[in-house]
Structure formats: structure tokens, C-alpha cells
């Protein structure tokens, strides 16, 4: 099986930690980035070779917003990136 590169985005460090630790148990998964706000995420996306983004629905970020606004932006500018949304809402 080919490796899968994953980015995690959540404004809660403990959630980032938990998701990363869970994913590290899967030998064919690589966590290639972790971000606590949408601005840092978007600024770094072009530099990362990622297949999947796991993101919180509610996350701080000035320019790119969060939730549906952020997802629409990502799908428009990074159409090959698959998105998994997590939320406690």
C-alpha cells in the first residue's frame, strides 16, 4: 500500500496530539503538518505533499475563516486534497 500524507488542523493542542498519536500507529500514514489556525494552514498547504486534511469545523483564522468558508477555499485552490471534518458542534 502507498503511504498517505495527512495534515491535521485544530485549534486545540490536545486534539492535535491525540489525532497525531492515533495516526502514528498506522504504518502507511505520515502526518506531514499540524496547524492551529486556518491562516497557517493555507499559507503552508502549497509546501506540503498531502493527500488528506483532517480539520476542525470551528477554528480561528483571519483571512480564510473557518468552517464552510475554509472548506470552499481549499476545494477551489487545492482540489485534489481530500477533507475530513471533525467537530464537537
TrEMBL record:
The modification 4-aspartylphosphate is found at residue 56. InterPro entries: CheY-like_superfamily, NreC/VraR/RcsB-like_REC, Sig_transdc_resp-reg_receiver, WalR-like. Keywords: DNA-binding, Phosphoprotein. Gene3D superfamilies: 3.40.50.2300. One of its GO terms (molecular function) is DNA binding. The keyword Cytoplasm does not apply. Residues 5-89 form the Response regulatory domain. One of its GO terms (biological process) is phosphorelay signal transduction system. This is Response regulator.
Amino acid at each position: 500500500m502507498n503511504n498517505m500524507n495527512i495534515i491535521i488542523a485544530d485549534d486545540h493542542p490536545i486534539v492535535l496530539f491525540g489525532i497525531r498519536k492515533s495516526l502514528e500507529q498506522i504504518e502507511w500514514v505520515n502526518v506531514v503538518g499540524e496547524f492551529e489556525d486556518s491562516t497557517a494552514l493555507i499559507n503552508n498547504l502549497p509546501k506540503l505533499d498531502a493527500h488528506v486534511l483532517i480539520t476542525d469545523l470551528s477554528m480561528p483564522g483571519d483571512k480564510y475563516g473557518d468552517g464552510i468558508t475554509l472548506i470552499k477555499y481549499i476545494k477551489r485552490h487545492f482540489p485534489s486534497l481530500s477533507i475530513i471534518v471533525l467537530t464537537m458542534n
